[in-house]
Amino acid sequence: MKSAFPFVLTAMLLGAAACGTKGVSIESQDPEATPVRRRPNRITRAELAELRHLNAEEAIQRLRPRWFRLREGGSVTAEQTLSIFVNNSYRGGPSELTRVQVSNVERMDYLNARQSYERWGNQHARGAVLITLRGGN
């Protein structure tokens, strides 16, 4: 009787390799080289490449419109507003997004209400968008 060990070992290695690749990001410095896997809470420079003529609000509306929706199903209002940070500096509410040109953006990150509350407290408890500009300007 032949040993089943080589077959079992091969199956285990293939299974481990398949499990090990799940969740790996496929982001590349060259957006044409490989497809960019979209992260629900981050917009990268590669994703913004074709939207350079828009402002940050317009880009978010196209790429991640859920960032403007509250968990309860409503939309963000003046009383329940997202906090906007540019290069870690508080700028105000969502209207500030219209002042940021996508061509200057390195990335944009969304923090949900819990993350925002834990980081900045009650004042920013409806969530936040963190914009990192190219070159930190």
Folded structure, characterized:
The chain has 137 residues and is an alpha+beta fold. A hairpin with a 2-residue loop joins β2 and β3. The radius of gyration is 20 Å and the shape is globular.
Please sum up the structure shown.
The chain has 137 residues and is an alpha+beta fold. The chain contains 4 helices and 5 strands. Mean pLDDT is 78; it is low at 19-28.
Q: Percent helix among the residues? A: 25-40%
- Strand tally is 5
Tell me the number of helical segments per DSSP (H or I, 4 or more residues long).
Answer: 4
**Which segments are poorly predicted (pLDDT under 50) over 5 or more consecutive residues?**
19-28
Termini gap: 71 Å
Major sheet summary line: 5 strands, mixed
Query: What is the 3D form?
Result: globular
> What strand order characterises the main sheet?
1-4-5-2-3
Mean pLDDT level:
78
Radius of gyration: 20 Å
Percentage beta strand = 15-25%
- Order of H and E elements: HEHHEEEHE
Q: What class do helices, strands and sheet pairing give?
A: alpha+beta
